[in-house]
Amino acid sequence: MVYCAAFGCNNKAEKGSGISFFTFPKDVNLRKQWAHYCRRKEFIPTSGHRLCSVHFSSNCFMHDPQLLDQIGLQETFKKRLKPNSVPDIPLLTEDEVSSDVINRAKVRGAYSKRQKAEIIEEALSRCEDTAMPESSSIVFNEPVEAVTHQTVSTNNKKIQVELRPPQRTRAHQTNF
């Protein structure tokens, strides 16, 4: 699984996410700039480290991804960086990352289920209160004809189904 090497970035390679991952450049100076951008202590990028496309502005790409998306050609062109491109979208600070982690506390299944049930119950109680007053009544003055007997025809069909899966049998054929 490929993850982004930038500090505070949790992007990972998933199909359909629209995020591309780029290997660190081989040029030493450019590689140092990319590593400095990652803001990780004593970080030395290896061949397995990648940066995601989120950290590059649209002018860093050979083809503008936003323009291609508007035209409808996003799928046909692979995102490629221009030579000497450096990530230029600022990363989150350490305080912003730590507050983001705190705010993103894991929600347990039972808690979220109970919370959804409470919201639905509250919405239904509001709807019942405003739906129709209980003291209202409807009076019809015109006589209404009622049908007392009606015949309904039914058709019964039977289907036979074999529930066991078909099995192959092996037999030996020999000549005497």
Automatic annotation (TrEMBL):
Lineage top rank: taxon: Eukaryota
Subcellular location: Nucleus, Nucleoplasm
PROSITE patterns reported in the protein's UniProt record: ZF_THAP (PS50950)
Organism: Crassostrea virginica
Annotated THAP-type domain residues: 1-90
The protein's name: THAP domain-containing protein 11-like
Record's keyword annotation contains Cell cycle: yes
Pfam families, per database record: THAP
Keywords of the record: Cell cycle, Coiled coil, DNA-binding, Metal-binding, Nucleus, Transcription, Transcription regulation, Zinc, Zinc-finger
Gene Ontology cellular-component terms listed: nucleoplasm
Primary localization class, coarse: nucleus
InterPro entries for the chain: THAP1/10, THAP_Znf, THAP_Znf_sf
GO MF annotation list: sequence-specific DNA binding; zinc ion binding
Family: Belongs to the THAP1 family.
